[in-house]
Q: What sequence folds into this?
């Protein structure tokens, strides 16, 4: 049979059923759209992260870094003056907020103009004479890019008010440089270049550098390979290739990106049900036609291909529409994603969508592939129609119902495998997701079978209560399970996904909120402003510590020291703290040694570890944790594991006494004040702030930074608002997913009703009024909903328990300054 | 480093007493200052080398800024280090900059030290601060020399006050050690050479700048075989003529100086060399006669390409002095600096 005829026949059918066509297209479009949008968003965020790293690193191949976040500037002096290593440049990197737009922090690069030339070309790209002189001799002078100047609406000579902690500082633009290409223009738009002296003053980094950039050349290769290079540098300074730091950033944000991808794939799966539904419906409606076609000589294979071809055309159309939708969606999602990556990981990226051909072709393959996959069963069904079988679908329903039983069995298998994966599988994110996917798909596959079982059980009950119509309602559902089963399945997935998302997010929020409440027992928290990505390198001045600890309102002061050390060759975060009794009581242990007491914790070599660290490093209560100290490796007994949501990598907590004893370290990263009863917290906050402002005034314009002073209420609010921002994107995805599911339900129910027009005619003929028929149809739809809900509740009871840890594992709530 | 504001800096307005060892050290209230070493060296087998080692100090502003950060300063240092390998016709040069910082760059008197990363010149705390040690190292070449002066210092110009332009204060304080016995080791691409020879050191500080119409200068420092030295500089004008402030000096075997006016001498350019890298054409080879001193000789570059392509392009190289009256006699060696030449393209 000619191709043209087949197309013509197909077209005439779809022309008669435009709504069905639209719904199918919409389903594919939304599915593909969401997948495309998320993929574009993820790759754009990642790409711009890479670009910002490479623009900022310039020609650097390596860096000298330290786990503590800063290296002493003496390391740089050593390189230059002792080793004579010329291809090195000191860098201080941090972030500043302008008063006008504090939500978009500027990346600040403090550099030494004399060391810059081999690395970055910012200075060569300015035409202003005397620029170096201005940067070196005038405090708070900066360079901005042309695009940055445009955005800030400034020109050479303008002043930009910025916030440093709670203090206003005016930065003076002394030069404007041109970016060499579009990418760097985007990165540089949000960037300020300043002399290293200004950067040290602004960030209170006197004597320290964020890192030293290095260029490896043929002539100095051996230096990089041997240890000789590091001799003479301070103990914690390590050499790292720029690629390594790129990978570290990618690893950091991977979990977040995987979450988004998984959600987008779920949307596509729901979209697939929609396609399946549409194609099956179109096949069933055309059984007569298909039978006749077979009579006039169309082979099974031709029928099969015909249906697949139709699916391919619809799929392609929907995919193309989806691509466009994806691109539009990506624009708005990207802002959310970059904001979150900023909030959580301090990885600054650029908000502009990068269209990659790989993403687009992946979406095309996925869209069309999903369509063909979903159309496979309907196509087989169509090709199995016997010639001249004009009678409607009693036979096929029977086949289908058997198929549902098989499907149900597969579903059970899927659920079991899902559980097994979650329980015994590795901790990997994709493994966990596969487990949850199997659970959801498995339970969706069980839907038709369960519907059948539910309606059989409920039929006598309904007949008893609602009489003959009640029975008819459920019988109708059962006999139409070919349609309704799929509708219920699609709805199950959508509701399951949205419900569990809601549940996960809200219960996670509750957990975090109550955890914050238990953690934030102190009344006031004081910490250096989080202007640098690593806070371990910022300390509170000892004078100020003394001053604020001895305020008459203060009952107890806790001090926090955070650092990293090696444990059998692996880096481990260690926090040292002294807690008052009520702070100790707030600890929520998952597990602890039998005879645990806080006195022992203070005095003996003992640590308690956070749950993420325990999971990652396989730590067991009662065993020892080896930690490197200046005096060699020391065994610390693991006295307990406690719940914590703040540090993704986890940390070991020990008493400050132990930090002092084993590391001879008396510095303090942040402090917490417990006030006496009846004291107004806000008043004390205000007093400390005033005192800081007064102090900084005395020290001149580029003085020590004031500290962040925050009450526990304020801190909790900030933490939760970061949390809410993080999950805003899942809210958007949830809506889209729900949208697809609603379309699925709509199309399924509609198809059922359309199909039953002959049945309704018979019912009318035997005396049913249109109202009665309407009632029956409505109650059938409601019953579908009830059955779905019933099944969903059961399903959720089993699967929720497994999906919660997934999120708490992935997300890291950085309530900076609380720990 | 010579351009920029003058206001607020000290000016060399007239002769002043020199105090040593203090004046060997920095004068931060003047805008520019340099410690300028050049020398001709020879390996035991007669292989010849030339070196230039200069550390410049430049103040970006008259007052030093308020500082918290160690990096905040108005003083910056520039270093130029060049080595001429005559036999292989090779010329190595490099430049580096740094701001003043105890660990990176600086200068001090007691003990004497001027440094820029791992380039440095050190001496003791005595009045003459000799012997001095120069150490410099780049990826390709390395130098470690010990310098001992054979003559007392020479105050240039009018008792050390060297007028460079018509405006008062457009002058420098300038003294030289014109003959310093030098020995040490230099390494070229890893190969060490024991060397000895003679060096010349110029010390100058000022807040002066080239005046309108002045485009550059030619500077000659010649150490004659008979024990005398000749220093002369001509400041070139746009019209090709020497500025009236162009001067010279002859130092006799005992260190006694005879000032030279430009009219006392005749300098004739014999040829030119065009840099293939920059396209700049430099004079190459001169005929110099100073009738009053009975000097008549030719000055030839040891190799043509001794151009430093640094932040400012200039030619500074080792030269051979040939006695035109008696060509069999070696007349001497020296260094020549040519600045302000521009490509014609």
A:
């Amino acid at each position: 049979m000619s191709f043209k005829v087949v197309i013509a026949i197909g077209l005439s059918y779809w022309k008669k059923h435009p709504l069905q066509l639209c719904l199918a297209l919409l389903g594919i479009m939304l599915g593909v759209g969401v997948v495309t949008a998320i993929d574009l968003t993820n790759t754009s965020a990642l790409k711009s992260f890479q670009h910002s790293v490479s623009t900022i690193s310039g020609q650097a191949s390596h860096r000298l870094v330290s786990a503590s976040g800063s290296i002493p500037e003496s390391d740089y002096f050593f390189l230059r003056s002792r080793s004579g290593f010329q291809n090195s440049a000191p860098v201080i990197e941090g972030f500043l907020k302008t008063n006008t737009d504090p939500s978009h922090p500027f990346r600040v690069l403090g550099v030494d103009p004399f060391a810059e030339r081999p690395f970055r070309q910012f200075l060569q790209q300015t035409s202003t004479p005397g620029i170096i002189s201005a940067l070196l001799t005038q405090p708070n002078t900066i360079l901005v890019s042309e695009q940055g100047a445009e955005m800030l609406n400034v020109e050479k000579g303008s002043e930009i008010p910025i916030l440093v902690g709670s203090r206003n500082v005016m930065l003076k633009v002394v030069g404007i440089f041109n970016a060499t290409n579009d990418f760097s223009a985007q990165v540089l738009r949000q960037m300020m270049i300043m002399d290293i002296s200004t950067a040290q003053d602004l960030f209170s980094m006197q004597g320290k550098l964020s890192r030293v950039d290095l260029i490896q050349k043929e002539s100095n290769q051996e230096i990089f390979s041997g240890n000789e290079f590091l001799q003479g540098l301070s103990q914690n300074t390590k050499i790292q290739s720029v690629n390594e730091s790129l990978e570290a950033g990618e690893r950091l944000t991977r979990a977040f990106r995987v979450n988004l991808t998984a959600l987008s794939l779920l949307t596509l799966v729901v979209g697939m049900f929609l396609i399946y539904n549409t194609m099956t419906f179109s096949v069933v409606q055309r059984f007569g036609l298909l039978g006749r076609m077979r009579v006039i000589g169309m082979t099974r294979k031709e029928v099969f291909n015909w249906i697949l071809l139709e699916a391919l055309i619809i799929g392609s159309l929907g995919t193309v529409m989806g691509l466009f939708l994806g691109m539009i969606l990506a624009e708005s999602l990207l802002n959310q994603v970059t904001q979150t990556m900023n909030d959580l990981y301090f990885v600054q990226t650029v908000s502009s969508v990068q269209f990659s051909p790989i993403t687009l072709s992946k979406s095309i393959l996925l869209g069309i592939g999903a369509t063909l996959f979903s159309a496979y069963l309907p196509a087989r069904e169509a090709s199995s129609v016997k010639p001249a079988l004009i009678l409607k679908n009693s036979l096929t329903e029977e086949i289908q119902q058997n198929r549902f039983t098989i499907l149900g069995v597969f579903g059970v298998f899927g659920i079991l495998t899902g559980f097994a994966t979650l329980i015994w599988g590795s901790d990997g994110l994709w493994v966990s997701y596969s487990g949850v996917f199997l659970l959801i798909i498995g339970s969706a596959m069980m839907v038709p079978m369960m519907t059948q079982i539910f309606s059989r059980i409920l039929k006598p009950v309904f007949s008893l209560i609602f009489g003959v119509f009640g029975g008819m309602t459920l019988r109708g559902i059962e006999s139409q399970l070919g349609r309704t089963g799929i509708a219920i399945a699609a709805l199950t997935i959508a509701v399951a996904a949205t419900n569990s998302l809601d549940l996960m997010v809200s219960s996670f929020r509750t957990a975090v909120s109550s955890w914050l409440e238990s953690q934030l027992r102190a009344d006031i928290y004081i910490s250096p402003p989080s202007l640098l990505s690593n806070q371990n390198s910022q300390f509170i001045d000892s004078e100020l510590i003394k001053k604020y600890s001895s305020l008459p309102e203060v009952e107890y002061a806790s001090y926090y020291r955070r650092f990293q050390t090696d444990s059998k060759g692996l880096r481990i975060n260690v926090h040292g703290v002294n807690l008052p009794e009520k702070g100790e009581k707030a600890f929520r242990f998952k597990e602890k040694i039998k005879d645990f007491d806080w006195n022992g914790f203070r005095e003996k070599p003992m640590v308690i570890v956070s749950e993420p660290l325990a999971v990652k490093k396989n730590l067991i209560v009662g065993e020892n944790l080896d930690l490197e100290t200046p005096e060699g490796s020391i065994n610390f007994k693991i006295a307990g594991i406690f719940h914590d949501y703040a540090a993704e990598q986890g940390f070991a907590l020990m008493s400050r006494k132990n930090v002092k004893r084993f590391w001879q370290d008396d510095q303090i990263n942040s402090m917490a004040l417990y006030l006496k009863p009846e004291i107004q917290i806000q008043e004390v906050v205000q007093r400390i702030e005033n005192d800081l402002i007064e102090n900084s005034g005395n020290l001149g314009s580029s003085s020590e930074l004031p500290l962040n002073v925050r009450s526990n209420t304020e801190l909790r609010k900030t933490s939760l608002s970061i949390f809410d921002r993080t999950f805003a994107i899942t809210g958007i995805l949830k809506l889209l997913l729900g949208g697809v599911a609603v379309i699925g339900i709509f199309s399924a129910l509609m198809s059922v009703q359309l199909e039953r027009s002959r049945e309704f005619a018979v019912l009318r003929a035997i005396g049913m009024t249109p109202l009665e028929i309407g009632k029956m149809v409505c109650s059938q739809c409601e019953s579908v909903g009830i059955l779905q809900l019933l099944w969903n509740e059961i399903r959720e009871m089993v699967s929720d328990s497994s999906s919660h840890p997934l999120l708490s594992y992935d997300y890291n709530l950085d309530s900076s300054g609380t720990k | 480093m010579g351009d920029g504001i003058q206001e607020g800096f000290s000016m060399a307005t007239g002769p002043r007493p020199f105090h040593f060892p203090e004046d060997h050290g920095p004068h931060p209230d003047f805008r520019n200052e340099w410690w300028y070493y050049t020398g001709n060296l020879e390996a035991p087998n007669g292989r010849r080398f030339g070196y230039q080692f200069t550390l410049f100090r430049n103040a970006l502003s008259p007052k030093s800024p308020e500082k918290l950060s160690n990096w905040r300063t108005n003083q910056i240092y520039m270093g130029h280090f060049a080595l001429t390998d005559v036999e292989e016709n090779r010329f190595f040069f490099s430049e580096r900059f740094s701001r003043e910082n105890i660990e990176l760059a600086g200068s001090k008197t007691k003990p004497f030290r001027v440094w820029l990363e791992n380039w440095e010149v050190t001496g003791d705390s005595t009045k003459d601060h000799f012997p001095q040690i120069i150490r410099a190292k780049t990826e390709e070449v390395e130098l470690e020399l010990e310098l001992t002066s054979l003559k007392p210092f020479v105050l240039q110009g009018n008792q050390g006050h060297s007028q460079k332009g018509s405006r008062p204060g457009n002058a420098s304080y300038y003294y030289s050690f014109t003959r310093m016995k030098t020995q040490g080791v230099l390494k070229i691409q890893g190969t060490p050479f024991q060397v000895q020879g003679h060096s010349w050191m110029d010390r100058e500080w000022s807040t002066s700048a080239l005046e309108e119409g002045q485009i550059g200068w030619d500077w000659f420092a010649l150490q004659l075989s008979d024990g005398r030295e000749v220093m002369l500089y001509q400041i070139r004008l746009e019209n090709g003529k020497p500025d009236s402030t162009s001067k010279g000096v002859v130092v006799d075997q005992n260190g006694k100086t005879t000032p030279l006016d430009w009219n006392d001498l005749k300098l004739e350019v014999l040829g030119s060399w065009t840099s293939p890298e920059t396209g700049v054409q430099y004079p190459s080879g001169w005929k110099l006669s100073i009738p009053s001193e009975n000097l008549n000789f030719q000055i030839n570059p040891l190799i043509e390409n001794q151009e430093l392509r640094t932040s400012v392009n200039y030619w500074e190289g080792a030269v051979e002095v040939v006695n035109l009256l008696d060509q069999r006699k070696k007349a001497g060696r020296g260094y020549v600096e040519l600045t302000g030449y521009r490509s014609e393209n």
In short: Chain B touches chain A at residues 4, 60-61, 65-74, 76, 96-99, 101, 103-104, 115, 117-118, 137-139 (CB under 8 Å). The two ends of chain B are 24 Å apart (CA to CA). Chain B is about 0% helix and 55% strand.
